[in-house]
Design brief:
- 2 copies of one chain form a homodimer.
- Chain A is an alpha/beta fold.
- Chain A has a single domain, classed as 3-Layer(aba) Sandwich (Rossmann fold), CATH 3.40.50.1100.
- Helices cover 34% and strands 16% of the residues of chain A.
- Chain A is built from 11 helices and 16 strands.
- A 6-stranded mixed β-sheet of chain A has the order 4-7-15-12-13-14, with helices on both faces.
- In chain A, a hairpin with a 2-residue loop joins strand 5 and strand 6.
- In chain A, helix 2 packs parallel to helix 3 and helix 7 crosses helix 8.
- The longest helix of chain A is centred in the middle third of the chain and has 15 residues.
- The N and C termini of chain A lie far apart (63 Å).
- Chains A and B meet through helix 2, helix 3, strand 10, helix 4 and helix 9 of A and helix 2, helix 3, strand 10, helix 4 and helix 10 of B.
Chain lengths: 415, 415
């Protein structure tokens, strides 16, 4: 049984029922789901209540905002592996670094978490179709869940979205439209279309308040996987940042439940070519300003926040409340990290996801993260999603006649 | 503790220790792992013995050929979802059809199963490097596991391998060589290189006898997921066919254990443009002949068996022993089925995997599979792996200015 009670504005604290609502009708603030007094399993055991009749993250449905089990639209998402780092960072190793491997979700990214919750809640509220503005992964997730729910879906994507993600949306049967300009144009147009056409807007910024509830289940899973230990740091690639805030919310709930007595420090990672939250953090401002010119290969976090910079401000607030920090990395460093994760860890990730590796390395070198600090990096999306930045590398693969002599010629070149 | 005892030739029945061996040194036949008397959990409960300290398919290590747990090289593979069909096949529905979703494996295909077992056994035998000839998925799996094992790897691929798979191998750090001609050229050259350079050959035909042991774990998982019910039919896309034979072996073991009293009928699915096993089946021959000219988009099963047609004969024998059948489907039907799986099921699969859907539909129409027959189709690989056949479809996606009016213009075109 879900313990969700309603939506509450994080700004004016006005409360609303669990309906299709986006920003606060009173003050325009971000809405957040609130719950009845949370409870764990009876007895001394520090365990969340789980519904074993469902697979994936919905086992935690007690703590999620869908009231009727029949409205759950699932592709069996979540419950992703936590993998210990094997990476040799030249000057040090990182035995206390773990990767939460979100590439193993049904559509290949963490966005399946917010999407399964947001679409299930939309179904519970009787909607007839869904729309999403997406730089890629939220769009493919929306397309997948709309397909299995037999709901029409419209996906608005920025002009430069990787074609791998477009293909995935196409196969799931969504109606796709490319919108000129950066992600913010898609975001603002989706808002207008959703209102005028009465579609549920699943856009996974903070705009739809239910998505973040899916993100928070990562905290629950980490609690189980780390046997109750709380990471000192959690590194998250951030565009708008609900994933970071969602994970932190999950930990705050675990603390309220009395299961843990401290909270992780949240570290937001952005690409230097689009880093509005890092900029505000570095300049010690409390308010995030929109980013002007987006220039990065990390398509999953290239969000300039134009028209909704309050969302970035909210993420910055979470980071500061957690005593964390924000850091940016270059495209060159990101590409190098894609290969490090592939070659040393057997993880095939998209550029956006690799940003956390180089951020970890930098923070270790700055002595902010120390050798013994339990740290989790969120690996957000699979490598197939965005191959263009490395595609030229394939030109170096040799083509030979099928003879051993020709092989030996190539082998000699390897040295 | 593993119950594996040795290798036995399926032809002359000569036995060998669990070393790096490929075809039988006595007669050239296929080698198969054999076990001590299998046992299940104590008591009346029909349950396999599981090692809860390991995740994924290695929980079944009692029934796998790796003796020392420390040699296991895993990326947490297997334990994939079983999903009930929601597909509306025009003239009928298919409530008793299930999909075993192998796209959820770490490198995106079922090949992670044979590869984790074969590489772990190679490590146990002290090898220094691995080589694979692959039409793609086995190569990406080898590359991933070699990376995490810190072993050098060489992957030989046919000229026409999809670039998505090449990119994945590249990121995992393998040495890749394209070999002119079809898959058989790569296969035969890999054999020669492995012997001359003392690399373990992980090629996942029947050549490496340990791979099939990974495939058989699908039967164990289905036994658990279907609560002991045995499917009447299991549909498998087949190139050489060890996946089909492996699953059947798993079921034969479950029968020996007394857990089940019947076996599934195995259905092999090939593409019309490369269907040597189907041809032999249709012509009522017991021996498979190599295929001459490969012409299909289903790259994962485009194996002409030149130089190792005995492997196809062995698969045909399994099919006949199981009272199953072999069937071929056209490229056009396959592409249509990719979209059916995407739009109706939310499953994004590569063309090879979609072949089982159209095969199911045909067999239903022929009244071979009936409405109430419990049937499992193996979904072998994720859609990202091979996007070229559908890439032109993306040209139809509109690009608009970010205004509601422009959206309405597009919406009108949708009708």
């Amino acid at each position: 049984m879900s313990l969700a009670l309603g939506l509450r504005c994080v700004n004016c604290e006005k409360e609303y029922p669990l309906k299709i609502l986006y920003n606060c009708p009173n003050c325009g603030g971000i809405l957040d789901v609130f719950y009845d007094k949370l409870r764990g399993k009876a007895g001394n055991e520090k365990r969340l209540i789980v519904d074993e009749s469902i697979q994936g993250l919905w086992t935690y449905r007690e703590y999620l905002p869908v009231l009727n089990k029949e409205n759950i639209c699932s592709l069996i998402e979540g419950k992703t592996p936590l993998i210990r780092s094997k990476i040799d960072f030249d000057s040090f190793i990182a035995e206390e670094l773990f990767f939460k491997d979100e590439t193993r979700n049904p559509s290949g990214s963490f966005k399946d978490r917010p999407t399964t919750v947001a679409i299930s809640k939309a179904i519970e509220n009787g909607i007839q179709g869904v729309i999403t503005a997406s730089s890629g992964n939220a769009g493919t997730a929306t397309a997948a869940y709309a397909a299995v729910a037999s709901l029409p879906s419209i996906i608005l994507v920025p002009e430069k979205v990787p074609k791998e993600k477009l293909m995935q949306m196409f196969v799931y049967g969504s109606k796709i439209i490319k919108v000129k300009g950066d992600y913010s144009n898609s975001f603002n147009l989706a808002k207008e279309i959703a209102v005028k056409c009465d579609y549920a807007n699943l856009t996974s910024t903070y705009y739809n308040p239910y998505g973040l509830e899916g993100d928070k289940t990562i905290a629950y899973e980490l609690f189980d996987q780390l046997k109750g230990l709380v990471p000192k740091y959690i590194l998250v690639p951030i565009g708008t940042g609900p994933l970071l805030t969602g994970i932190y919310k999950g930990y705050k709930e675990l603390k309220k439940l009395g299961f843990i007595n401290k909270l992780p420090r949240m570290i937001g990672v952005q690409a230097m070519g689009c880093a509005p939250i890092v900029k505000a953090y570095n300049e010690k401002r409390n308010k995030v300003e929109p980013w002007d010119l987006v220039d990065t290969i990390a398509s999953g976090i290239s969000d300039p926040l134009k028209g909704y910079s309050q969302d970035g401000t909210y993420t910055l607030k979470t980071i500061k409340n957690s005593n964390g920090c924000a850091i940016s990395v270059s495209d060159e460093e990101i590409l190098k990290s894609v290969l490090v994760l592939g070659k040393q860890q057997g993880l095939y990730v998209e550029p956006t996801s690799a940003s956390v590796i180089i951020a970890y390395e930098k923070l270790r070198k700055m002595n902010i993260i120390r050798e013994r600090d339990l740290t989790v990096s969120i690996i957000t999306g699979i490598g197939f999603k965005d191959t263009k930045p490395l595609m030229d590398s394939l030109n170096s693969i040799p083509l030979i006649e099928p003879t051993f002599d020709k092989f030996k010629e190539i082998e000699m070149l390897w040295g």
